[in-house]
C-alpha cells in the first residue's frame, strides 16, 4: 500500500495542465448550443405548434398529442443534425443522482430498411424498469413498471461523452400507480402551489400579475484531488470522505487560499468545465478558490427553480466527467476532510412576477415596500412555523459532518435579515394601532417609507446563518454540496405558499370587517413579525451562547439525521403536504423510509471500509514498524549500547504503538459486533438510530488512534496518502 502511495505522489509531481481547446467565440455565441431551447424549437417547428407548446409551458397545461408529435419530429431532426445517435429520458430518482436508459434512434421499417425513428409517444412517456430504484415500499420488487414523463418546462439537451452524443429529455418518474418516485415531481407541484398562492396576494398590489415564479441560484462548492491520490485512498473511493488522516501542520488557518490565485491545472479544468456547462445552457458566471486548500466554487445566474435544479444536477455530472479528463477527482461530499471546511450548496431563492418584479426586493415607492414586507414577513413566518421541517429537508449522513462546524450553519434553523431590516421590523412591531384620516400620508404613518431603497447594498451577510436575507433573496446556506436541491426547495416553496394563503385569508377577514386594505395588510404583517420573532437571530450562530438562547426560544437543535427526519412525517408536515397536494401520505412515509435506509447504508459502508483499512492496512504497518524498533533495541543490546535516553524513548514508542494497536483492534471488533446487532433490527428508524448512536460512536475512537499512529510510523512506511499530500498537491 505504501508503494501505491509513493507511485501516486510521483505521478502528481509530473502532472502538467491539460491543453484545453479554447473557442474563439464569445460566450453568447455558443451558450446553449447543445440545448433544444426556445430558439431551436422556433426554427424547427411550425409557428402554430410552437405557439401551442409555449402556451402549455407558460400555463402548465397538458401538451396534446399533435403538439408532442411535432416536438418529437423537430427534436429528432435537431439532435441528428448535432450527431446524436441515441436518446434517453433523464430523471432524478430518490438515489440523489440522475438516471438514464439510452435508446437508439435506429429502427427498421416494414421492409427491413434502417431508418431513424422518434415518435411523440417516445418523447412523452417511457417505461423504465423501476425495480431497483428506492421506493420505500410503494411498489413490490416483482412489479417493475415505472413511468418517465416529459417535463416540457426543462429543455432537452445533448450530452457528449467521449465523442458519443445522446439526446437527454428531462422527465418526472412515477410508479405505475401514480406515486412519485423522484425529486422533480413534488418540486413541480410545489412551484405550482406557490404560483397560485402568491398571485392571490399580488392582486392586492397589481391586478396585472397573473403568474409568480420561484427563481433560484445555486452556488456549488467542491474539492479537487489528483486522481492518483484519490485512487490510493480506498475510503475516498468507497465513501467519498477520508475516514482517517491527521491534520497537516498547515491547513486553512492562514486564510491564504480563499479568492487566491487559481493553480494552473485547476484553471485548465475550470475553463474546460465551464465551456461544457455553457454549451449545455448552464449559465455559470463565477469561479474562485474557496476557504479550504484545494476547495473551489462555481455559481450561475438565477433561473426558474425547476431549471436551476436540473442544471445543478447536470453540472455535478459534467464536473465529474471533465475532472477525469484533467486527472482530477471532483469531491462533492459535504465533509471529505476532517478539520478543514466542508462544502455546501447555497440555494439563493427569490420569487418574481410575470410583470418583472422581484417580490423580495424593496422598491422605490411605498406601495412596493408594502408588497415586499407582505412576502418578506410571510416567508419568515413560514420558516418559523416549519423550521423543523426545513431541518429535515437538508438532513443526510454527509451533511451531519458539516452542520455546526466552523464553516457551516448550525443545525438550529434561524433567519438573519441584517441590522437595518431588523430595526424596520422592530419599529413596525412596536407601532400601536393606527387610525388613518382623510389626507393622511398612509405609508408615512405606517413607517413603510423608511425601508432603504439601497437595501441590497446595506444588507450584511452572516455565514453562520442557515437562512439569511441578502438584499433581494433568501440564501438557504445549510443545503449540502452533494444534495439534490429539490428536497429543500420543495419544502421552502410549500411552506411559503401555505403561509401566503393564511396571509390572504386574514387580510380578507379584516377587509370584510371594514378595515382599509393597506391597514389590514400592515396589521397581519405586524402579527407575523411578533409571532415569528424567535426565529430571527443576528449574532454568531457558532457560539454556545446561541445554543443556550435558541433552547430558551424553543428552537430545535437536532444534530443527527435519523432524528431530524422525524419532522418530515410529523402531524404538522403531513397536514401541510397532504392538504396542499404536494405528497400523499403514502409518498411522504415512503420518502421517510428511503432516507432512513440511505442513512443506514452510508454508515454501514463507512464502518466496513473503516474496519478493512484498520485491520488490513494500518495495523500491519504499525506492527511492522514496531518490529523495526524492537530489532533496533535488540541490535543495540547485542553491541552493549542499550543504555541511555534513546533506548528509553524507543521503548516508550513501542509501548505507545502497542497501546493504539490494541485500542484499534478492540474497537473494530466491537464495532463489527454492534453492526451485526443493528442489522437485525427490522424497524428502519430504530436501525438508523442504532447505526447513528452506537455503530458510528466507534468511528472517532478508532480514528484517533489511527491518526496518532500516522504521526509515529515512519513516513516511508505509512500506507495511506496523507492530508498534506491531498490538500496541497495539484
UniProtKB/TrEMBL annotation:
GO biological process, alphabetically ordered: glutamine biosynthetic process
One annotated GO molecular function: glutamine synthetase activity
Superkingdom of this protein's organism: Bacteria
SMART domains in alphabetical order: Gln-synt_C
Residue ranges occupied by any GS catalytic domain in the UniProt entry: 183-618
InterPro entries associated with the record: Gln-synt_C, Gln_synt_N, Gln_synth/guanido_kin_cat_dom, Gln_synth_cat_dom, GS_Type-3, GSIII_N
Domain GS beta-grasp: 85-178
Name of this protein: Glutamine synthetase III
Amino acid at each position: 500500500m505504501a508503494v501505491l502511495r509513493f507511485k501516486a505522489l510521483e505521478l502528481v509531481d509530473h502532472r502538467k495542465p491539460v491543453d484545453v481547446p479554447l473557442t474563439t467565440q464569445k460566450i453568447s455565441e455558443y451558450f446553449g448550443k447543445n440545448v433544444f431551447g426556445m430558439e431551436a424549437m422556433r426554427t424547427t417547428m411550425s409557428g402554430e405548434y410552437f405557439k401551442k407548446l409555449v402556451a402549455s409551458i407558460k400555463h402548465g397545461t397538458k401538451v396534446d398529442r399533435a403538439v408532442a408529435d411535432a416536438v418529437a419530429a423537430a427534436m429528432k431532426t435537431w439532435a441528428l443534425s448535432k450527431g446524436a445517435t441515441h436518446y434517453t429520458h433523464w430523471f432524478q430518482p430518490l438515489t440523489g443522482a440522475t438516471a438514464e436508459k439510452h435508446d437508439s434512434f435506429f429502427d427498421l421499417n416494414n421492409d427491413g430498411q434502417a431508418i431513424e425513428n422518434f415518435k411523440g409517444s417516445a418523447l412523452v412517456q417511457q417505461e423504465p424498469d423501476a425495480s431497483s430504484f428506492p421506493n420505500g415500499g410503494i411498489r413490490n420488487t416483482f412489479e417493475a413498471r415505472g413511468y418517465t414523463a416529459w417535463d416540457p418546462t426543462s429543455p432537452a439537451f445533448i450530452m457528449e461523452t467521449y465523442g458519443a452524443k445522446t439526446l437527454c429529455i428531462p422527465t418526472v418518474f412515477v410508479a405505475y400507480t401514480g406515486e412519485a418516485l423522484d425529486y422533480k415531481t413534488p418540486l413541480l407541484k410545489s412551484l405550482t402551489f406557490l404560483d397560485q398562492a402568491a398571485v392571490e396576494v399580488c392582486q392586492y398590489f397589481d391586478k396585472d400579475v397573473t403568474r409568480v415564479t420561484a427563481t433560484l441560484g445555486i452556488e456549488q462548492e467542491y474539492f479537487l484531488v489528483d486522481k492518483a491520490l484519490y485512487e490510493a485512498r480506498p475510503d475516498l473511493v468507497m465513501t467519498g470522505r477520508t475516514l482517517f488522516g491527521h491534520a497537516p501542520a498547515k491547513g486553512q488557518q492562514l486564510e491564504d487560499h480563499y479568492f487566491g490565485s487559481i493553480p494552473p491545472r485547476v484553471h485548465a479544468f475550470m475553463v474546460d468545465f465551464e465551456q461544457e456547462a455553457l454549451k449545455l445552457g448552464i449559465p455559470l458566471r463565477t469561479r474562485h478558490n474557496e476557504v479550504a486548500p484545494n476547495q473551489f466554487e462555481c455559481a450561475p445566474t438565477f433561473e426558474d427553480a425547476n431549471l436551476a435544479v436540473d442544471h445543478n444536477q447536470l453540472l455535478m455530472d459534467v464536473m465529474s466527467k471533465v475532472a477525469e479528463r484533467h486527472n482530477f477527482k471532483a469531491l462533492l461530499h459535504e465533509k471529505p476532510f476532517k478539520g478543514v471546511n466542508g462544502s455546501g450548496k447555497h440555494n439563493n431563492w427569490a420569487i418574481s412576477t410575470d410583470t418583472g418584479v422581484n417580490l423580495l426586493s424593496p422598491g422605490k415607492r411605498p406601495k412596493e415596500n408594502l408588497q415586499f414586507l407582505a412576502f418578506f414577513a410571510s416567508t419568515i413566518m413560514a420558516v418559523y412555523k416549519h423550521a423543523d421541517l426545513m431541518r429535515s429537508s437538508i438532513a443526510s449522513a454527509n451533511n451531519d459532518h458539516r452542520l455546526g462546524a466552523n464553516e457551516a450553519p448550525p443545525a438550529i434553523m434561524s433567519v438573519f435579515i441584517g441590522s437595518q431590516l431588523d430595526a424596520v421590523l422592530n419599529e413596525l412591531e412596536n407601532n400601536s394601532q393606527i387610525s388613518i384620516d382623510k389626507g393622511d400620508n398612509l405609508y408615512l404613518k405606517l413607517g413603510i417609507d423608511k425601508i432603504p431603497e439601497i437595501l441590497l447594498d446595506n444588507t450584511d451577510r452572516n455565514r453562520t446563518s442557515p437562512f439569511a436575507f441578502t438584499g433581494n433573496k433568501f440564501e438557504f446556506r445549510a443545503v449540502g454540496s452533494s444534495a439534490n436541491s429539490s428536497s429543500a426547495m420543495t419544502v421552502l416553496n410549500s411552506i411559503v405558499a401555505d403561509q401566503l394563503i393564511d396571509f390572504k385569508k386574514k387580510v380578507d377577514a379584516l377587509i370584510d370587517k371594514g378595515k382599509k386594505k393597506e391597514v389590514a395588510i400592515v396589521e397581519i404583517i405586524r402579527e407575523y413579525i411578533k409571532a415569528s420573532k424567535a426565529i430571527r437571530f443576528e449574532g454568531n450562530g457558532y457560539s454556545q451562547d446561541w445554543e443556550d438562547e435558541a433552547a430558551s426560544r424553543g428552537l430545535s437543535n437536532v444534530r443527527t439525521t435519523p432524528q431530524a427526519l422525524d419532522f418530515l412525517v410529523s402531524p404538522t408536515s403531513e397536514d401541510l403536504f397532504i392538504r396542499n397536494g404536494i405528497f400523499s401520505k403514502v409518498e411522504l412515509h415512503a420518502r421517510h423510509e428511503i432516507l432512513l435506509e440511505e442513512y443506514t447504508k452510508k454508515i454501514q459502508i463507512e464502518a466496513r471500509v473503516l474496519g478493512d483499512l484498520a485491520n488490513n492496512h494500518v495495523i500491519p504497518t504499525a506492527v511492522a514498524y514496531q518490529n523495526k524498533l524492537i530489532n533496533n533495541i535488540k541490535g543495540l543490546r547485542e553491541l552493549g549500547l542499550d543504555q541511555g535516553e534513546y533506548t528509553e524513548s524507543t521503548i516508550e514508542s513501542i509501548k505507545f504503538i502497542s497501546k493504539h494497536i490494541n485500542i484499534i483492534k478492540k474497537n473494530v471488533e466491537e464495532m463489527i459486533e454492534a453492526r451485526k446487532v443493528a442489522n437485525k433490527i427490522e424497524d428502519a428508524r430504530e436501525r438508523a438510530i442504532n447505526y447513528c448512536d452506537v455503530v458510528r460512536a466507534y468511528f472517532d475512537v478508532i480514528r484517533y488512534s489511527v491518526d496518532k499512529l500516522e504521526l509515529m510510523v515512519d513516513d516511508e512506511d505509512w500506507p495511506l496518502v496523507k492530508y498534506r499530500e491531498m490538500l496541497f498537491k495539484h
